[in-house]
Amino acid sequence: MGRTANRRDRIGTLPPRYDFILNPHPDVGFTRCARCDTRTNVRKLPLVIHVEGFGLVLLGKTCRLCLRCDTLVAHKAELDRLLRAMVSVPKLEYVVLGTVNRQVYQRGLSGHASLDDVKDHMADFKSYWKVDVTPGGWYPKNRNAG
Ligand SMILES: [Zn+2]
Known about the structure:
Number of domains: 1
Structural class: alpha+beta
Shape: globular
Bound molecules: zinc ion
Helix content: 10-25%
Radius of gyration: 16 Å
Number of strands: 8
Order of helices and strands: EEEEEHEHHEE
Strand content: 25-35%
């Protein structure tokens, strides 16, 4: 796995948080962290997503979080499905930008969150990572550890 190019245009006011992995492999659950092999926790977090041709979407999404190295993993297939139900664009292209404060997310659900509101309470991701899965399954780099 490797680190992908970082976005330079920070949006959120809060300090960047979490290293983010968009997992394109539906059959890989990431019960262990792809980076440090620690058991991950299930967390539902309000994500801020920029959808091409639509704009910002706030989406409460169940993710995997590694508390040790602060890596957050979201399933691409699940995100695709949730986003398709929310926005209608000819071709779904999006970037998950970061996480937003839960109160703002709640306001957003009822249509009361402004763009500034979101920006003021949003933390961009620190970095983006991608994972490679071999045909036999995904293995952490340090298989002998633990
Ligand atoms: Zn980790």
